[in-house]
Amino acid sequence: METNRTLGRSGIEVSALGFGCWAIGGEWSDLGGQPLGWGKVDDDESVRAIHRALDLGVTFFDTADVYGTGHSERVLGRALGKRRADVVVATKWGNLFDEDTRVLNGQDASEQYVREALTASLTRLGTDYVDLYQFHLSDAHPSHGARLREICEEFVREGLIRAYAWSTDDPARAAVFAEGEHCAAVQHALNVMQDAPEMLALCEESGLASINRSPLAMGLLAGKRQGPQDAGDIRSKPPTWMQGFNNEGADSDWLNRVDALKDILTSNGRTLAQGALAWIWARSPRTVPIPGFRSVEQAEQNAGAIEKGPLTADQLTEINQILER
Q1: Is 153 exposed, middle or buried (0-12, 13-18, 19+ CB in 10 A)?
Q2: Burial class (CB in 10 A: 0-12, 13-18, 19+), 30
Q3: How many other C-beta atoms are found inside a 10 Å radius of the C-beta of residue 318?
Q4: pLDDT class for 113, splitting at 50, 70, 90?
Q5: Is residue 274 pLDDT above 80, yes or no?
Q6: Which of 5, 79, 100, 212 counts the most CB atoms within 10 A of its CB?
Q7: Which of 265, 266, 274 has its CA nearest to residue 299?
Q8: What DSSP string runs through 109-177?
Q9: How high is the pLDDT of residue 109?
Q10: What's the mean pLDDT in 91-100?
Q11: What is the C-alpha to C-alpha distance for residues 254 and 193, in angstroms, rounded to an integer?
């Protein structure tokens, strides 16, 4: 497998595997106390994990201003330091939050807010440009998307960003951004349990990269079996949009289906997580999965998937037969 991929039609080269920086933001919540992070984190360990990822050839890091209410961006900026020019940084905007109380307190899809949000992200990241700027409100009205697309084009002309994308699971919304010259990607959910054929078709037709969040299904495709004990972990109190979980933790039906795939996913000496990433690479040459991480060990395991490469076409067919799709 080629270890690098091009970020859509931007010409920006990234590693075939990116790292998602949601988890390293630490604990945060909504106004009702719903946890939105992945529990407590050790910032020094997060920095060590990012450095290890860089050493292993990972050059694409995806965060958002709201992750940890700004904390993820600050940790990523600290970790990259003088190596900033060697990597591709993606972040997102659209959510409102209070850094002091670590609370998500609203949304803003207005044209007035986007420049304010970008300026704040640049400061937290310690950089003067963002490689890929992504609209984070997945269900915003398409008319908002059209206006924000034009503002992103202005940012490209000003040198503040290199390219942009919409983080959404709706191909129709993604297509609105795709009309812009410097739209390079769409970020959407994709994993072996949650295929997205329409979105992958749009990426192929429009020349976009497919950036894949939840590639390990919130840990279910990494062998996680027990519900987390940490009350600050979103999986301890799963919101309704989180597939594969219920009030007791991981959904038994999901776990049974994962078990049925285990022999295929762990072929060629792969871990279960590496097999899940291999499925994504086999699904489309445009895919760039962004698994999360909180430790050097997780960084090493995720990066280890690269040398194993994608699953075969026959293995994809076998998985579809097992999942009856």
Answers
A1: middle
A2: middle
A3: 15
A4: very high
A5: yes
A6: 212
A7: 274
A8: --HHHHHHHHHHHHHHHT-S-EEEEEE--TT--HHHHHHHHHHHHHHHHHTSEEEEEEE-S-HHHHHHH
A9: 96
A10: 98
A11: 8
Q: Which stretches of 197-283 are DSSP H helices?
A: 197-206, 252-265, 272-283
Order of strands, edge to edge, in the sheet holding 29-30? 29-30, 103-107, 95-98
The contacts of residue 195 (CB under 8 Å, 6+ apart) are: 283, 325
User: If you average pLDDT over residues 167-192, what whole number do you get?
Assistant: 98
pTM, 2 dp: 0.96
Which listed residue (67, 113, 133, 164) is catalytic?
67
CB 122 within 8 A of CB 130: yes
CATH superfamily, region 4-322:
NADP-dependent oxidoreductase domain (3.20.20.100)
Cβ-Cβ contacts under 8 Å for 41 (sequence gap 6 or more): 23, 24, 25, 26, 27, 294
3-state secondary structure of 281: helix
Is 231 exposed, middle or buried (CB count within 10 Å of its CB: 0-12, 13-18, 19+)?
exposed
Alpha carbon distance, N-terminus to C-terminus of the chain: 26
Length reported for the chain: 325
Q: Are 169 and 188 in contact, with CB atoms under 8 Å apart?
A: yes
Q: If you search the block for the tokens 């279910």, which residue do you land on? A: 220
Active site residue 67: yes
The two tokens of residue 81 are 């330091």
The backbone torsions φ and ψ at residue 95, rounded to the nearest 5 degrees and listed phi first, read: -95, 150
